[in-house]
Design brief:
single chain, alpha/beta, 4 domains, metal ion binding, globular, Rieske Iron-sulfur Protein, 32% strand, FAD/NAD(P)-binding domain, FAD/NAD-bd_sf
Length: 541
């Protein structure tokens, strides 16, 4: 079977490139297991000269060979942009200098075993290829040519790559969407968060050229959910993970405002709330979680929010500006919202059942240090109590009454008291779900049903670094990795998950970064200065 590969070339270069040296068009032919695959490449194949347009290329001498020791990195300037020069095992490599996730300077990261790790959020890149190997983020680093001449190190790079500092990996396209029945797909992904999107992208990167459909209850295409509580006035288009055109280019169909009500695993059919049915061959369930609501008197009054969507976050900022805010729950969401609103609102009060924030997660000493930072930024804590009533005036929130008897003035209330997995629709499905509602998967993200995978906040999976203990890790980074592992195993790669859990939170210009899984710790070893918030804490058992 012959398959044509189309290489996408910027418009201005296309006229020069349309003819091959012998004057005839020369498509590339690709054969895959005797199956027709139509590839549509988003980057040029690696050739002896990957830079088609000489005007787009810059070459510069950046240092002497002895300027860098093994294991060292240096940011170097090529005149129209920077690159990261790396020396490891006697060899030089050059890649983009900024992490494609949020633009962190990789020179401040960690170089180890052929990979550079981002200093901010832990994304990891292969120094030989630039490929992303651990998350968060979707794009890889551009890789540049390095040559040594007369003991000088030269880098040759595309100006465009130096400016964008990111590279989207090659992806296949669907062979022919027009051949498909609307109500059947090869891969159905329920949920359009990080896990669902990375799964779809990984399938395309691996050459999968059949139909992929993602469905979401959200109104929007996949977006950067952590920003809802960290950067609350962001609009949906500002935090989109990929532009609309991306999904069209790679034939990843997204059905918005579509909720799956049941899954018939015997007949491989997903039944939607509106009665629509879709057959699938492989299924990924990545529905995430549902925030818990308050159960007190007056819980249905206006201006009480769980932050689930960009619209929720935007509305809270608008209502809170110069007004009184009460936040229920010193969770990551609750604390991030408090930090964001502290300088915008007239007052911010935080109600929590525990005696210090983050006690179960960070321990009492770290929790107290964080609490002190909040108090010095005008956030008032009401600890070891709960909400007993929400009082209204003309239908809108006016006061929050605590069980301690205290009455707090409130124009807006944000609830962050935890969440439950969004798996209720699977109860009668036969898919294995534990007592807390989490979908149980193995190291390959497979459920007990062949062809059905699950990923993200709604699963428990065996964590290698805790002797394969089944854990739930609702982190953004982990959702990305789950999606990747699920996709590879849909394609029968036999890939097991082995990544280290990683999360970050940012409050009042301070960032807390946490690696590992410290659940059940009985001691905290602290190095550094807690009062100055310059410390490392080790959670031990």
């Amino acid at each position: 079977v012959e398959v044509k590969i189309e290489v996408v070339i910027p418009e201005k270069e296309r006229s020069k490139e349309e003819m091959s040296p012998n004057g005839k068009a020369s498509p590339l032919i690709y054969k895959v297991n005797g199956t027709a695959r139509h590839y549509h490449l988003e980057e040029h194949p690696i050739a002896s000269n990957p830079y088609h347009n000489p005007k787009d290329v810059v070459e510069a001498s950046v240092c002497h060979v002895k300027d860098l020791e093994n294991g060292q990195m240096r940011e170097v300037d090529l005149g129209c942009g920077k690159a990261l020069l790396i020396k490891e095992s006697g060899e030089f490599h050059a890649v983009g200098h900024k992490c494609p996730h949020y633009g962190a300077p990789l020179v401040k990261g960690v170089l180890s075993k052929g990979r550079v790790r981002c200093p901010w959020h832990g994304a990891c890149f292969n120094i030989g290829t630039g490929d992303i190997e651990d998350f968060p983020g979707l794009d890889s680093l551009p890789r540049f040519q390095v040559k040594i001449e007369k003991d000088k190190v030269y880098i040759r790079a595309s100006k465009q790559a130096l400016q964008t500092q990111r590279r989207t990996k090659m992806m296949a396209k669907c062979i022919s969407l027009s051949n498909y029945n609307l109500s059947s797909t090869n891969v159905l992904i329920i949920g359009a968060g990080a896990a669902g999107l990375v799964c779809a992208e990984t399938l395309r990167q691996e050459g999968f050229s059949d139909r992929i459909v993602m469905c979401t209850m959200d109104r929007h295409l996949p977006y950067d959910r952590p920003k809802l509580s960290k950067s609350m006035d962001s609009h949906p288009e500002q935090i989109a993970l990929r532009p609309k055109e991306f999904f069209c280019t790679y034939d990843i169909e997204v059905l918005t405002e579509m909720q799956v009500a049941a899954v018939d695993i015997k007949n491989k059919i997903a039944v939607f709330k509106d009665g629509f049915k879709m057959e699938y061959n492989k299924l990924l369930i990545a529905t995430g979680n549902t925030p818990k609501a308050l159960s007190c008197k007056g819980k249905e009054v206006e201006n009480v929010f769980n932050i689930r969507t960009p619209e929720d976050a935007n509305r809270v900022v608008k209502l809170a500006t110069s007004k009184n805010v009460v936040i229920v729950g010193a969770s990551f969401l609750g604390m991030e919202v408090a930090a964001y609103l502290a300088e915008r609102a007239h007052s911010v009060s935080l109600v929590e059942l525990e005696e210090v924030p983050f006690k179960k997660f960070f321990g009492e000493r770290v929790g107290r240090a964080v609490m002190k930072m909040f108090e010095s930024n005008r956030v008032k804590f009401y600890m070891q109590t709960e909400v007993s009533e929400l009082r209204e005036q003309e239908g809108k929130l006016k006061e929050v009454v605590l069980k301690s008897g205290k009455v707090l003035r409130a124009d807006v209330c944000v609830v962050g008291v935890g969440a439950v997995p969004a798996t209720g629709f699977l109860k009668q499905s036969g898919i294995n779900i534990d007592s807390k509602g989490f979908i149980v998967v193995n190291k390959m993200m497979q459920t007990n049903i062949p062809g059905v995978f699950a990923a993200g906040d709604a699963v428990t999976f065996p964590l290698a670094l805790r002797n394969n203990k089944k854990v739930n890790v609702p982190h953004w980074q982990m959702a990305h990795m789950h999606g990747r592992i699920a996709a590879l195993n849909m394609l029968a790669h036999g890939m097991e998950i082995s990544t280290v859990p990683y999360l970050w939170t940012a409050m009042f210009g301070k960032s807390i970064r946490y690696a590992g899984h410290g659940e059940g710790f009985d001691d905290v070893v602290i190095q550094g200065d807690l009062d100055e918030l310059k410390f490392v804490a080790f959670y031990t058992k």
